[in-house]
What we know:
Blueprint: H1 12-19, E1 26-29, H2 38-41, E2 50-55, H3 58-68, E3 76-81, H4 87-92, E4 99-105, H5 110-114, H6 141-147, H7 150-161, H8 166-175, H9 182-193, H10 204-214, H11 221-230, E5 232-242, H12 245-257, E6 279-281, H13 291-296, E7 304-310
Parallel strand pairs: 1-2, 1-4, 2-3, 4-5
Antiparallel strand pairs: 5-7, 6-7
Helix pairs in contact: 7-8, 7-10, 8-9, 11-12
Bound molecules: S-adenosylmethionine.
S-adenosylmethionine is lined by residues 9, 31, 33-37, 54-57, 60, 83-85, 105, 107, 109, 132.
Amino acid sequence: MMTMNSHTPVMVREVLQLLRPQPGEVFVDATVGLGGHSVEIAPRLIPGGWLIGIDRDPRALEVAGRRLEQFSGAIRVTLVHADFRELPQVLSARGLEGVDGILYDLGVSSMQLDSAERGFSFRFDAPLDMRMDPSRESITAADIVNRWSEVDLRRLIQEYGEEPAAARIARAIVQNRPILSTQQLAALVAKAVGRRGGHIHPATRTFQALRIAVNRELEGLQEAIEQAIRCLLPGGRIVVLSYHSLEARAVKRAFQRLSGKCICPPYTPECRCGAERMVHLLTPHALKPDAEEIALNPRSRSAQCRAAERLAAS
Ligand SMILES: C[S@@+](CC[C@H](N)C(=O)[O-])C[C@H]1O[C@@H](n2cnc3c(N)ncnc32)[C@H](O)[C@@H]1O
């Protein structure tokens, strides 16, 4: 069977249909990664467009830069080392009041997962690092695993990993410290959980939880997406790809709130969430990759795609 290489961007067809990049438009790829989506967006902005790629990982920006070089005569290409939570500052520093399209492809890149020494994956034995931006983040996964209390580790693995065996895993971690490498941790988690059938390794959820904590991935995510919506020009489009339920929840809430739908808890006597009608939802329900894409690119299997368009008068 034909398989796509590990850097294949996810749901490209759907992303392009929803973003509809046009000649001369200004687009932001807020998680440019290896430039997989950007190399598809860039030719559609010719002539006269501008593509701004943001990533917090300096190594991703190097790869994206090389891949996007081919377009630099035909459109403006700017790569920025920043956190996407700084989007308004990135735009105002370049004299932009709004843009025509913004893409978020959340989470970790295949290059980060495949770089053995970065410690994101238990497929390789490496120090427990997991920092997307080693120049800004100071806490590593090893710091969390070796310093946090059992209670805090349990809560982390339960909340960010949605792991039913969090208590057993946290106890095993505390009893076996110091834990220095990815495979040492993976083996210990597998032993604590007991081999579960199923298609994922028993340590997958624990590694996800640590990665989310190290990179503060959920901190202010809803606010960041809302902020991005405010950076759209009238008619501008935003697309967000998320990969687990915690991310999906934050994205959904941002989209609901700014499409005018109250997200207050049920039975709240009066709306306190401040819902505003700024966008029209292009995907009333999240889109998922089709079976063919999942077969060709298994990393796409958990993707959810949501999109919205900025209203003219908002
Ligand atoms: C799934 S990858 C993007 C892959 C990209 N769409 C492609 O096709 O090559 C996610 C990227 O987002 C970056 N990232 C994650 N959180 C970020 C944040 N808060 N600010 C900026 N970049 C972030 C990661 O470093 C990673 O390179």
